[in-house]
Design brief:
Number of domains: 3
Radius of gyration: 22 Å
Low-confidence stretches: none
Strand content: 25-35%
EC number: 5.4.99.-
GO biological process, one term: enzyme-directed rRNA pseudouridine synthesis
Order of helices and strands: EHHEEEEEHEEHEEEEEEHEEH
Catalytic activity: a uridine in RNA = a pseudouridine in RNA
Number of helices: 6
Enzyme class: isomerase
Helix content: 10-25%
Number of strands: 16
Structural class: alpha+beta
CATH superfamily of the largest domain: Pseudouridine synthase
Mean pLDDT: 94
Distance between the termini: 51 Å
CATH class of the largest domain: Alpha Beta
CATH topology of the largest domain: Pseudouridine synthase
Function: Responsible for synthesis of pseudouridine from uracil.
Largest sheet: 10 strands, mixed
Amino acid sequence: MIRTRIQYEISAQEEGRTVERFLRAQGFSRHLLIQTKYTENGLLLDGAPVHTNVKLKAGQCLSAAIVNGAQNERMQPIRLPLSIVYEDEDMIVIDKPAGMPVHPSQGHYDDTASNALAYYFAQQGEPFVARSVGRLDRDTSGLVLFARHELSACILAEQMRRREIHREYRAICTGTLPECGIIDAPIARAHGSTIERIIDSERGDRAVTHYTRLTVKNGFSLAAVRLETGRTHQIRVHMKHIGHPLPGDFLYNPDYSVIQRQALHAYRLAFHHPITRQQMEFTAPIPQDMIQILA
């Protein structure tokens, strides 16, 4: 299904490149390029069909179809709370509540952010393919980015690989956290567990976390946290490692006296728009269950 088209005006610097080389530089993966090439009128040069080995000239207009994949029939559209922070035809950013998984998994087939988005787009008569760019744990609240078509997904995935998508968290930690610091401790899967992670200098992958203490109140510290690496449960494991675990964390600090889930929130998200290249930045307010700990 052709959802829309994207047009490129060829500059003097790009003259002589083949269509394939040009589109690869724009973020098309090999798979997406093949898919577009074999779509009827998928590639047009000055309005006429063109092969990918044709060399481009300055001033020409290259048009590529943006193909949207078929919706997964097992993805049930379910009416669920959905807080949309931003959306356009290329991407959508939501503020995910705690307790909601991003994608369906065992035991969670109809209560996820993907189900909610499938319902939202079904009401508009649009198919939806869940393409999240980065994930959050089920009980971590905050900003989640979804690509709305294959090209956006390719470009944003490359930004993620290059660490050009910047995410900042707010975490509440037990005790008085140092004013700032860097935690550099390798993380590995715990023996005999499918989900728990531990610090392991022999088996672990390098993991680096930067934090800054923002305030201390009621025996807890609010911290701004930035990840240099992206390991599973990284913030939760690292804060436990330095003696300041997150309250409400069922794996690493099951103390539910002040909150019923890990006190972690994806607060800020910054990246370049996949199509326009415009700098984008979003924030989501800290949820009430975390605010109450410091009230």
